[in-house]
């Protein structure tokens, strides 16, 4: 297979960073696009940078290229497009909504401007990336688009309304793009991680990647936590699959693709959030009486 050229929109940290690195591990050239650089921070106010991500991509075996891009600014997205001669994989992972989400607050009592900011950061960004970058793939007659979301169905789990609208909207975007792009040889799909242990999540739990299991004392479900590299390996498997078009328009998960492709997380385990969720929340099993290792 020829070397892949990929854009990961929202590659600064979390799933986006790990996806970029795992694409690098299969030899891809990865444009790591995001807002936070070593020279300027984004409103997320986190220490991770796109330069760090690009270096990790190169260290993994690929070629990482950091591109500062605010995906709500069309000129930035157009500048990113001007750097590309071709595009094989587009990963739409922009989110940037956590500081504005008011979980637990009735929508009518929440800050409407913050709600609109969540929608703009989570939906407008994806639309601009698709509109600007898809013509490259259409011209080639091939490509893979991965819309990163949260959840693989439309069940409402009590999260803030703007959060739910964004994540469900991303799934519907993938469904619509899958229908429109199949005739052009392009596969579009949505993909969710399970219980993700991102940098921010680890920090919030007061643990590190080395001792993350200690956080199960606070939240028993964290026993199923997966590193961001789990979804990264799912994307890498999709990118190498010559029959990836069979997934077009679908909402997939890291755990379902783990079962399909056989990859593991960075610790060598196979965290199955889907089976855990079905047993604990669906069948009513007590999570304190089951062995988490049986789900990994």
Automatic annotation (TrEMBL):
InterPro entries (UniProt xref): NAD(P)-bd_dom_sf, SDR_fam
Transmembrane segment boundaries: none
Xref: SUPFAM superfamilies: NAD(P)-binding Rossmann-fold domains
Pfam families, per database record: adh_short
Protein name: Short-chain dehydrogenase
């Amino acid at each position: 297979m020829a070397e892949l050229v990929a854009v990961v929109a929202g590659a600064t940290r979390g799933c986006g960073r790990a996806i970029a690195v795992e694409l690098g591990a299969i030899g891809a050239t990865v444009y790591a696009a995001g807002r936070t650089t070593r020279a300027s921070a984004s409103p997320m106010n986190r220490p991770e940078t796109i330069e760090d991500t690009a270096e990790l991509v190169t260290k993994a075996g690929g070629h990482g290229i950091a591109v500062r891009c605010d995906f709500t600014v069309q000129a930035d997205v157009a500048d990113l497009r001007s750097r590309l001669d071709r595009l094989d994989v587009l990963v739409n992972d922009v989110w940037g909504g956590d500081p504005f989400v008011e979980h637990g607050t009735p929508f009518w009592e929440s800050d409407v401007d913050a709600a609109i900011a969540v929608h703009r950061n989570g939906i407008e960004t994806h639309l601009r990336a698709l509109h600007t970058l898809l013509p490259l793939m259409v011209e080639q007659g091939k490509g893979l688009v991965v819309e990163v979301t949260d959840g693989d169905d439309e069940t409402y789990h009590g999260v803030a309304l703007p959060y739910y609208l964004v994540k469900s909207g991303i799934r519907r975007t993938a469904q619509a793009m899958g229908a429109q792009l199949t005739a052009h040889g392009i596969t579009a799909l949505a993909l969710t991680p399970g219980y993700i242990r991102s940098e921010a999540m680890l920090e919030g739990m007061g643990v590190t990647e080395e001792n993350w299991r200690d956080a199960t004392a606070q939240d028993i479900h964290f026993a199923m936590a997966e590193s961001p590299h789990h979804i990264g390996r799912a994307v890498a498997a999709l990118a190498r699959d010559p029959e990836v078009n069979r997934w077009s328009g679908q909402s997939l998960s890291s755990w379902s693709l783990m079962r399909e492709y056989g990859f593991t997380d960075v610790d060598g385990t196979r965290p199955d959030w889907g089976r855990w969720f079905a047993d604990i929340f669906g069948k009513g099993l007590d999570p304190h009486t089951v062995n988490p290792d049986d789900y990994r």
